[in-house]
UniProtKB/TrEMBL annotation:
<dbReference type="InterPro" id="IPR018110">
    <property type="entry name" value="Mandel_Rmase/mucon_lact_enz_CS"/>
</dbReference>
<dbReference type="InterPro" id="IPR013342">
    <property type="entry name" value="Mandelate_racemase_C"/>
</dbReference>
<dbReference type="InterPro" id="IPR013341">
    <property type="entry name" value="Mandelate_racemase_N_dom"/>
</dbReference>
<dbReference type="GO" id="GO:0009063">
    <property type="term" value="P:amino acid catabolic process"/>
</dbReference>
<feature type="domain" description="Mandelate racemase/muconate lactonizing enzyme C-terminal">
    <location>
        <begin position="127"/>
        <end position="231"/>
    </location>
</feature>
<dbReference type="Pfam" id="PF02746">
    <property type="entry name" value="MR_MLE_N"/>
</dbReference>
<dbReference type="InterPro" id="IPR029017">
    <property type="entry name" value="Enolase-like_N"/>
</dbReference>
<dbReference type="Pfam" id="PF13378">
    <property type="entry name" value="MR_MLE_C"/>
</dbReference>
<protein>
    <submittedName>
        <fullName>Galactonate dehydratase</fullName>
    </submittedName>
</protein>
<dbReference type="GO" id="GO:0016829">
    <property type="term" value="F:lyase activity"/>
</dbReference>
<dbReference type="InterPro" id="IPR029065">
    <property type="entry name" value="Enolase_C-like"/>
</dbReference>
<keyword id="KW-0456">Lyase</keyword>
<feature type="compositionally biased region" description="Basic and acidic residues">
    <location>
        <begin position="367"/>
        <end position="377"/>
    </location>
</feature>
<dbReference type="InterPro" id="IPR034593">
    <property type="entry name" value="DgoD-like"/>
</dbReference>
<feature type="region of interest" description="Disordered">
    <location>
        <begin position="353"/>
        <end position="377"/>
    </location>
</feature>
<dbReference type="InterPro" id="IPR036849">
    <property type="entry name" value="Enolase-like_C_sf"/>
</dbReference>
Length: 377
């Protein structure tokens, strides 16, 4: 097996970081090691891992490389390190698949499904626009729509705040009808004290799931004994199987949502999925970034038996970076994988190089309550 001899990092629009790893016989693998708003920080972490651990090593020893990157520095975990590991891990699996002439899902043990259901994200604060966007998604064949509400509640939610969130779901439900699943992502905006009140009111709208209802620091306050009439989903701000373990043990998590570029990559998300299955939880990966990460996650969704859905691919810039981009697009609410080795994508390196360095130093937006205190994005 060939040795890892070189790597390059490309910061590209709109806010992504691509990694190219090359072996001694010229085989190339691609990954996406990015933490939104922290591209420079993660870039440095990737360089430290590649220069310190991987250059000169055999590319096929993925598990051993993962353990060295995770445990070899004594300090471990967290969003920066795990995002750096994730992108490297994706690229190593891409290389391994190309050597074997097989897609990653076959190397992992094969498919458990022929296609994966995808949901459409709908982001707006305007109720009139919301109805139109949901109707458009249904007309495009999506069987699930996820609402991402950026509604700015009070520091302690008032009755009017809860009324506004419920009206948001009511408008979406009326537009979609009963044949389409509606989910809602609350982005961690709701206070732990108010969450039970909101949950009891949301039951009327029969959401498929409620995602990240409260801040990640407070997720352990969710009361599993209340038996809410919908699943609770979260995990995009958890980074390893050890982060997920306590919530699964306490029965607080119904749908685990690790991010393919933040939770240690293909190797670790397979572990997270197995742990979730042990506790009866489903897996619905989060894709917060670009097409290389999306391809890696789609490989996993076709393999993991408890994976249920995934978001549709972001259309931003993908034509510039991926030659077989249509293989990532959904049709009638489902995505299927091409029979290509590795991650299943043909990266347009010329397009990547043409766009590299043209992106701004994007940072997560900060917003304020009416009293001037911070509210999360």
């Amino acid at each position: 097996m060939a040795q890892i001899v070189d790597y390059e990092l490309f910061k590209v629009p709109p806010r992504w970081l691509f990694l190219k790893i090359e072996t001694s016989d010229g085989t190339v693998g691609w990954g996406e090691p990015i933490l939104e708003g922290r591209a420079k920080t993660v870039r440095t972490a990737v360089e430290e891992l590649m220069d310190g651990y991987l250059l000169g090593e055999e590319s096929n020893r993925i598990e051993d490389h993962w353990q060295r990157m995770y445990r070899g520095g004594f300090y471990r975990g967290g969003p920066v390190l795990m995002s750096a590991i994730a992108g490297i891990d994706q690229a190593l699996w891409d290389i391994k698949g190309k050597y074997a002439g097989e897609p990653v899902y076959d190397l992992l043990g094969g498919q458990t499904r022929h296609r994966v259901k995808v949901y459409k994200k709908v982001v707006t604060d305007e109720l009139d626009e919301l109805a139109d966007l949901v109707t458009d998604a249904v007309d495009d064949g999506y069987g699930t729509v996820k609402l991402i509400t950026a509604y700015q509640t009070s520091a302690i939610e008032s009755t009017a705040d809860l009324d506004a969130i419920c009206e948001y779901l009511e408008v979406a439900r009326e537009a979609a009808g009963r044949e389409v699943d509606i989910a809602v992502d609350l982005h961690g905006h709701i206070s732990a004290a108010t969450a039970p009140r909101l949950f009891s009111r949301l039951e009327e709208y029969d959401p498929m799931f409620v995602e990240e209802p409260i801040r990640p620091e407070h997720l352990d306050t969710i009361d599993p004994s209340s038996q809410y009439a919908f699943p609770i989903a979260f995990g995009e701000r958890l980074y390893s199987r050890w982060d997920f373990k306590p919530y699964l043990e306490r029965g607080q998590l119904d749908i685990a949502q690790p991010d393919i570029s933040h939770a240690g990559g293909i190797t670790e998300i397979k572990n997270i999925a197995t742990l979730a299955e042990t506790y009866g939880a489903k897996l619905m990966m989060n894709y917060s970034v670009g097409p290389i990460a999306y391809a890696a996650g789609t490989q996993l969704s076709h393999h993991l038996s408890n994976a249920v859905q995934q978001p549709a691919v972001s259309e931003r810039y993908i034509d510039a970076y991926i030659d077989n981009v249509n293989d990532l697009r959904s049709e009638n609410g489902y995505v299927s994988l091409p029979d290509k080795p590795g991650l299943g994508i043909d990266v347009n390196e010329e397009g990547v190089r043409d766009h590299a360095g043209q992106t701004s130093d994007w940072m997560t937006p900060n917003r304020r309550h009416d009293d001037g205190s911070l509210v999360e994005w």
